[in-house]
Task: inverse folding
């Protein structure tokens, strides 16, 4: 459900700011604030992504990610006062493209997550688009033969 009035204003704005095409990409979104999650859903959908997991709690996201294939995730570091850093490390170990979202400084990240793109709140559609493009570019460089 969009938080924007019809027609979908977010879609037209996101299309103008697009630096990445998420068509065919299965996405997990985990954000502690429900309204921010709804906005993030609109942005990712506007970029063409298929949202297969949308969660406000780490436990729910973790449970779903074990049974659902995803290409990439945007993970709020702090979901309902639960730090998502161990879950973020788990996603990285699985080879899932990851973007972290936070209102905190990068200095708080463990060394295992220093290379993961971080978008600082408040973020924009362009921030999300650029961060996702960077993770998909990096994955393609690591696995050039898997390009579809």
Result:
């Amino acid at each position: 459900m969009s938080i924007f009035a019809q027609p979908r204003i977010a879609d037209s704005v996101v299309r103008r700011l697009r630096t990445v095409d998420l068509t065919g990409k299965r996405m997990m979104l985990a954000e502690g604030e429900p309204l921010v999650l709804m906005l993030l859903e609109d942005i990712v959908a506007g970029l063409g992504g298929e949202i297969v997991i949308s969660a406000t709690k780490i436990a729910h996201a973790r449970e779903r990610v074990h049974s659902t294939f995803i290409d990439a995730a945007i993970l709020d570091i702090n979901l309902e006062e639960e730090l998502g850093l161990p879950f973020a490390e788990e996603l990285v170990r699985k080879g899932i493209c990851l973007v972290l979202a936070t209102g905190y400084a990068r200095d708080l990240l463990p060394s295992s997550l220093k290379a993961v793109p971080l978008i600082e709140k408040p973020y924009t559609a362009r921030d999300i688009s650029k961060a996702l493009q960077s993770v998909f570019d990096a994955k393609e460089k690591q696995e050039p033969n898997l390009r579809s």
About this structure: The chain has one domain: 9-138.
